[in-house]
């Protein structure tokens, strides 16, 4: 259970606009960079699906990207984080032409970063032999486009 001084925030951003046009990967890179700059880290779930009833009464389904951050601090810091996330959701929703955006604040979890021993690389027997770029752009490209 999260303490009163910890919140988990989620923002879901659609991968397509209301006409089915794919959103540029750079939009997701910008969101990831913005959240990392603000909260020192972000977890990205690149393929979340959801369905909703459209204006015609039919059902539309979308693939989206979920961004998650955890914030720990005094109530004023948590309030500022909530305002930041709502502002980001509003900006993105307006830019992407969405009727609304999913932004959630949750205190139903406890987050901990367990200290371990850092090393320059995993043990050789655990390595696959394939090296990949660890830049934010490369990660977003792999997550969104499915390339390695």
Characterise the protein shown here.
The protein has 148 residues and is of the alpha+beta class. 32% of the residues lie in helices and 26% in strands. It has one domain: Alpha-Beta Plaits (2-Layer Sandwich), CATH 3.30.70. It has a four-stranded antiparallel β-sheet, with helices on one face. Helix 1 crosses helix 3. The longest helix is centred in the middle third of the chain and has 22 residues.
Secondary-structure blueprint of this entry?
Blueprint: E1 6-14, H1 25-39, E2 43-53, E3 59-72, H2 75-96, E4 102-106, H3 136-145
Antiparallel strand pairs: 1-3, 1-4, 2-3
Helix pairs in contact: 1-3
**What is the terminal-to-terminal distance?**
36 Å
Global Rg: 18 Å
Helix and strand content put the structural class at: alpha+beta
Strand order in the sheet with the most strands: 2-3-1-4
What is the percentage of strand-forming residues?
25-35%
How many domains is the backbone divided into?
Answer: 1
Mean pLDDT across every amino acid position: 82
Instruction: List low-pLDDT spans.
Output: none
Number of helices: 3
